[in-house]
Specification:
Two copies of one chain form a homodimer.
Chain A: E1 9-12, H1 18-28, E2 32-34, H2 45-48, E3 51-56, H3 63-68, E4 75-79, E5 83-84, E6 91-94, E7 104-106, H4 112-115, E8 116-120, E9 125-126, E10 132-135, E11 142-145, E12 153-162, H5 166-174, H6 194-210, E13 216-219, E14 227-230, E15 236-240, H7 250-260, H8 266-270, H9 284-310, E16 314-318, E17 340-344, H10 348-355, E18 362-366, H11 382-399, E19 404-406, H12 411-414, H13 418-436, E20 449-454, H14 477-486, E21 493-497, H15 498-502, E22 509-516, H16 531-542, E23 546-551, H17 576-579, E24 581-583, E25 619-621, E26 625-630, E27 633-641, E28 644-649, H18 656-671, E29 682-683, E30 688-693, E31 698-703, E32 709-714, E33 720-725, E34 730-734
Amino acid sequence: MSHRSTGRLTLPIETGMDEELVALVERLGADAVRNSDGTELPEIATELVDRVYSTYFPARGDQDFALAHPDTLTHIFLMSAPATALGTDPLTIRVMEGYFTDQLRPETDVDTERYWQVMDRTLGTPLARSAWELEGNGEDARVTITSPKPYHVYTVAFLAAQVWDSTQMYNYLTNDWHLEPGRVKERPYEVRRPEVWEHVRAALPAWLESHPEVDVVRFTTFFYHFTLVFNAEGKEKFVDWFGYSASVSVEALEAFEAECGEAWEPEDFVDAGYYNCPFRIPHPRFRAWIAFQQRFVAERARELVAATHEAGREAMMFLGDNWIGTEPYGEHFASIGLDAVVGSVGSAATCRMIADIPGVRYTEGRFLPYFFPDVFRAGGDPCAEANDSWRLARRAIVRHPLDRIGYGGYLSLAVQFPEFIDRVEQIVAEFRSLHENSGGERPVNSRHTVAIVNAWGSLRSWMTHMVAHALHYKQAYSYLGVLESLAGLPFDVRFLSFDDIRAGVPQDISVLINAGAAGTAFSGGPAWLDPELVASVRSFVARGGGFVGVGEPTAATPPARDGYPQAGAGAILQLADVLGVDRETGWSLSTDRYPKVCEHPIAEDLGPELWAGERQGDVFATTASIVRLHDGSVDVAVNDYGDGHAVYLAGLPYSAENSRLLHRALIWAATGSLEDLTEVWIADDPRVEVAFYPSVERLFAYNGSEAAISTRLRGPGGTEVSVDLAPLDSQWIDLATPAATPGEA
Amino acid sequence: MSHRSTGRLTLPIETGMDEELVALVERLGADAVRNSDGTELPEIATELVDRVYSTYFPARGDQDFALAHPDTLTHIFLMSAPATALGTDPLTIRVMEGYFTDQLRPETDVDTERYWQVMDRTLGTPLARSAWELEGNGEDARVTITSPKPYHVYTVAFLAAQVWDSTQMYNYLTNDWHLEPGRVKERPYEVRRPEVWEHVRAALPAWLESHPEVDVVRFTTFFYHFTLVFNAEGKEKFVDWFGYSASVSVEALEAFEAECGEAWEPEDFVDAGYYNCPFRIPHPRFRAWIAFQQRFVAERARELVAATHEAGREAMMFLGDNWIGTEPYGEHFASIGLDAVVGSVGSAATCRMIADIPGVRYTEGRFLPYFFPDVFRAGGDPCAEANDSWRLARRAIVRHPLDRIGYGGYLSLAVQFPEFIDRVEQIVAEFRSLHENSGGERPVNSRHTVAIVNAWGSLRSWMTHMVAHALHYKQAYSYLGVLESLAGLPFDVRFLSFDDIRAGVPQDISVLINAGAAGTAFSGGPAWLDPELVASVRSFVARGGGFVGVGEPTAATPPARDGYPQAGAGAILQLADVLGVDRETGWSLSTDRYPKVCEHPIAEDLGPELWAGERQGDVFATTASIVRLHDGSVDVAVNDYGDGHAVYLAGLPYSAENSRLLHRALIWAATGSLEDLTEVWIADDPRVEVAFYPSVERLFAYNGSEAAISTRLRGPGGTEVSVDLAPLDSQWIDLATPAATPGEA
């Protein structure tokens, strides 16, 4: 039943290789082509495929305009390095110390009482404007606190102009564009300014008219860049892929106040130097700012998308760069009217982050490796990277298929690696088979819906524990593994905020997951000191629900009373009674523990040790049964609570084994037994996963490992199928016929 | 110059081995003998030595009295296990669940509105007496909360009688005394009751009169046992060597209120189940209770000591068992008028804890191993234990000599191990040499005085990070190593509270040490949010002082405002500016760190990795120079601050290498250079230490390792001596003569 399929594939193309292009497009069945940074679309593009994509930069694309309007730069709030007054002498702080003056310029001409703020951090209070002086400008700008309190720490928050677009700066510096004649340092412009918006709105139709070959406008992206600040050496100093710091300006701040009636101060944005990163429990004022910018970005983007449609083209958004305020899972996103979203795929979680976006007709994942000389060089192994990326992403694509996949970079480099092209051909065929052999439906999921609960809820669906897009962070991977596992497991996954569950956990939820380190937005921090919230979750579990806690779930310390820490109900984990474990802080060393490890079926596939990643201190059991213990600290534990069940995991970096542990833990938490493991199909070997498509009565089994595996697949009612899979291989199995049916893969 | 020396040694003796005793006392030069638990003094005792010790138990010694007065038991506050109301039904809590009914009995006949307390832990508030009912008694006592708030957590605090003395219970259960006819379960009696005190006061003179052979009354101890609670299986459930839980009673609580005007509630004592363990930041009311009991215990103990003196005997206190309220470093201790303190020595720190006690004429250390069958058995190696104990204790004894040493247990067992007796002879000789060859003075210390600063200050000198006496705790050893190192380093060590330094660090202090995990009394917790305190320490360092932080020094999180965590000055380490490092909590992952490791002379003796013990999460450098990095987290860092210097250490379990690192860190922190390392003498090899006695112009060099070591000793002004030391060996070196002089060791 093998057949040549085409479509669903976007290739990056370039000039000077027309003949190869024709052959390659035919061979791979590509139906769309695109340019990349640094490549031009060849004239042959429109003849090759139905659809031609082109990047479009609404807020930095026209540097003639930018240079002609130097007062239209976008802005950012920055905080100086903290300085301690070592006495009563005036304390001078050079605000730009540590910042990259090529990127940023302090705004000394604004109302500095309003847009600058000097904080006494030892007291936590701002200084009156009369208590400090501002002198100099640019690199030399300096604030002098005339009579500091001795040995108090001070910081200066200030508004700065962004004189260089962050992404273009990164590309420029990374690719040595200073060597290329004609390259400019692109300046971003603030669309809130009327003259800018007039220009941006007018420029798009003109561009569309002059680019008739373009079928799909790939917006890269809209108006505000995520927070990306470089240091004095021109290296990354601060990065927050979700950061709104660079979405501020006098215009925006005035509008915010007018529109929302919200008082604000620079501290609301610099946040003591944490800049409201997503690990911080979001302050209501920061939430208000996000909502405010979402409304604005959606409204303006909608106009650009409408103009695109008016010209008969499609509008696609790149999920990155200037994506701030779009909030794909926010309430205004669908109103933008985009046809599609495209994003970079490096894992299952990032894949689902794109695939699950509501309100667009289709999604596209840009796969790794990017065709750049770092991988496509003598001795490089692009096949290995392709395999790794595919192995991870496939898990997510099976559960919720992207509509399209694509690549980026220099095709001329990739074609020098024929084995890589062979592998791409296989991957694309396997990808298409998921659409074609599935009958166009998503595979069956468990009847038990799982919800991740944190401070952010649905707004940050599939975005938890991310700092810079898909990069590894030591403090995050032990929790990110939960998301990565879920992205490929047969569960409907929802993202709920504490507000969503305070009055009661929604009826359709079977298991709540709370994962993260203490004091972060992901575990929740002080939210768990709310009696209503803890009672709600306890009630949910006691009436038969499931709760899975990872790391320091529900951790919160009641505020000190008269400088003396109060003990809570928990004591540190506020739902210690539900989990049956608590986090040691040194306060209960006096209590003897007699930890005994017992066997439990949720750990049947697990080795003697859990790969827990970065453990957060010690955890002891109160009422839970310990399933895995590491150096005296609980790694895995299970607890009965009323009619419900809870599982504690110290950490869960992604691996096939850990994903299987989570799978079992969720089923057990939901039901108190593991019978429902075969409610949908499951492979005996955790490295193999399987999807079931009931309409076509087919299974898709896929091997996520580099080993050849023979295993048994088990389904509802005791049905079984055996399967042999080569390394990384997959197989379609027709349940209507007794033998396995070779599929596309 | 070798000669037979005698004295300073106490031997445990027993009946039935008179001939051996005479020889052994002569051979070892013992000048005192004692009985032990389970042994009787033989009649020959008074002929053997000048001084005969006998144990004396003021508050449990007379069980006839105890049984005749069953209403005089001592009491303890206990907390039930927490229970969650899984709905609105009445919630019944069996208060004794998990407790040992042979040890404890709930007091149901007291005013239960006053001496019992039901807490809604979810709200943190107590319930009115009318909201709960008490039924049953003894094991069956149960509290029913008639209308609980659904899914709130409740606990019951209650007063319980101690029907069995904790230490006697431990000995009874451990030694199977139920098999020995005549053994009773001893009941402790409360000396606050007038009839008890009358009896106790009268019993001592009578006992002294009937025991003319006793020269030294070894009080074991006075009135209140440290907190030691057993579980339902008769095993240890809760232990706090510093715990005051068992010092309560109706009489005491009424007196407290009358004397101090302090309102109190049971929660003040049960403390959410932490029972005011020394790791908790001490609440003012708990401090008031300690002060109150100190005054009482000192006053009553003074009477017993006076009676002892009146009978012409000496009064010695055992530091343990019923020592609560004596507080050897408290303001009332000297007023008791004791002649001596004896305590068990297992390390340098415990040795200094005894040796440094002010207000007594002499101190005695009871050495390990105890002559018990667990070590003195076929295949046992008592010499190894003796060596290990001596190697650790010697470091402390050199710096501040105990006046006497001794052993405990069954001498009849020990004499079956002739090699052990040989080793004891050597150890005793080496111990005496420290008194004799030193000219009776303490060795020279550095001119730089070091102070450990924590919530307890001098009250708990040499007692930090202890839970049960000298036992190993995973959460404590990484900090206890600081104390253990200091106990044998050439520094004057002081213990200061935050109150002691708030208005300014005392003039004579060169370096402050703050060591511990976040939120504990030892690091300090919320104390560091006090602007006056942080300014005081900053000022001290900036003006040239030193600061050494270990673990999570000065860690504190400002209280949440509207459920939103505020960032402090620090940010987590409130003196992050002084230390140049901060603790990562996930809030600053967005900030790029470019950690570079540099060489620094404080780490010259250190291998590529610090043995940091249990690291507390990740630490990053802000302004500090990183000296050791472990998996991206700072292990050792140094920072200049004004004219002063700070050192950060992730943890410091005790080892010769770590002790040397601390030595160097302290000198560097004090002066910014290492010149003063040879201000007093130092050995090149960190395993060898050296003491200098100026009056006699002698060095005492001692090898703390199992290896033979040749090393160079360096002193002030470039003086040098070479020394060869056998494993564990020591040597006296006469600086007046060119060659090394063989000493006693």
